[in-house]
Write a structure and sequence with these properties.
Keywords: Decarboxylase, Lyase, Pyrimidine biosynthesis. 48% of the residues lie in helices and 13% in strands. By secondary structure, it is of the alpha/beta class. The structure holds the ligand O=c1ccn([C@@H]2O[C@H](COP(=O)(O)O)[C@@H](O)[C@H]2O)c(=O)[nH]1. The site of the ligand O=c1ccn([C@@H]2O[C@H](COP(=O)(O)O)[C@@H](O)[C@H]2O)c(=O)[nH]1 has 19 residues, from β8 and α14.
Length: 317
């Protein structure tokens, strides 16, 4: 986690921009501008729509990365948005990760994998690549702990080998998360608290120079009280905090998830940043694709600055 913590220190900004493109979030003239290029390059007419969206997603992502790379430490591409387009989307996912890394950003791949040990070892190649080849360009990935220790160990080993990190789902931000995570265990703890204890243990051998291990935890901004208690319970575990902005979480909600030095967490916003152009009041259907991308860039930058400033007030107090 040392590289992430140092990137946060350098920008004085504990926030990560989620790169979760959807058709509704990309201005339509940007998608339309790739029609001719794509029609000439695909093998069958059925592929046109996914190929066109994929190239539009990359242009959109590149515009956003260029607009925020000097003020945020990290990005979090959500692989589901890319996989939804098939192979063309997966290519764009890796190209997005590579481009973000080239701009100096820490790349947190939100892939939420988890399986039996032998299969988890294959998924863990997201971190340690294939030989000397790193096809994914991620600095960290998210992992699902439902299968227990043998599903996590391959990720921890791959992270240690490649000097990378993982973030394990502990207390997720979504409305139904309590159905499982808040269940009581026989010893009086909740399921998510037990997972939190496992996560501290999984990371124990990998604590870096800033006191945090390679094994982070996902803790939703929508659970401020539990997040604060988890901060105490997990002293060596860095938090990825989604749920800010579009899901209702605020800077005040996440403040308790940081340690006394103002470290220990990074807060994600995806739609709140990349979709800010839609709420700017400046968009017009008559804009050219370049004008629409300029608006995407300026709106994303302003939203990222606002988030940074709100977090600074709440966290670096
Ligand atoms: O508990 C969780 C775990 C992951 N996520 C992911 O974070 C982003 C949130 O997007 P917003 O647009 O800022 O709501 C998205 O990729 C989720 O899959 C989460 O929200 N909660």
């Amino acid at each position: 986690m040392d590289r992430l913590i140092e990137a946060i220190d350098n920008t004085q900004n504990p926030s990560v921009v989620g790169l979760d493109p959807t058709e509704a979030l990309v201005p339509p003239q940007v998608v339309a501008s790739f029609a001719d290029e794509v029609r000439d390059s695909v093998e069958s007419p059925e592929e046109v729509e996914s190929a066109q969206l994929a190239v539009a997603y990359f242009e959109y992502n590149r515009t956003i990365i260029d607009a925020i790379a000097d003020i945020v430490p990290a990005v979090k591409p959500q692989i589901a948005m890319y996989e939804a387009l098939g192979p063309a989307g997966v290519d764009i996912y890796t190209m997005t990760c590579e481009y973000a890394a080239q701009q100096g950003l820490y790349v947190l791949g939100d892939i939420k994998r988890g399986d039996i040990g032998s299969t988890a070892a294959a998924y863990a190649h997201h971190l340690n690549g294939v030989g000397d080849f790193d096809p994914w360009h991620e600095d960290a990935v998210t992992v699902n702990p439902y299968l227990g220790t043998d599903g996590i160990t391959p990720f921890v080993e791959a992270a240690a080998e490649a000097d990378k990190d993982i973030f394990v789902l502990v207390r997720t931000s979504n409305p139904s998360s309590s159905e499982l995570q808040m269940l009581d265990l026989a010893d009086g703890t909740k399921v998510y608290e037990h997972v939190a204890d496992l996560v501290e243990g999984w990371g124990a051998e990998t604590i870096g120079s800033h006191g945090y291990s390679r094994v982070g935890a996902v803790v939703g901004a929508t659970h401020p009280e539990e997040g604060k208690a988890l901060r105490e319970r997990m002293p060596h575990t860095f938090f990825l905090v989604p749920g800010y902005g579009a899901q209702g979480g605020t800077a005040a909600d996440v403040a308790g998830m940081f340690d006394k030095q103002g470290s220990g967490a990074i807060v994600n916003s995806s739609r709140g940043i990349i979709g800010a152009w839609k709420k700017s009041g400046k968009y017009s259907e008559s804009m050219t694709a370049d004008e629409a991308l300029d608006l995407v860039a300026s709106s994303a930058r302003q939203a990222a600055l606002d988030m940074r400033d709100n977090l600074r007030v709440a966290v670096y107090r």
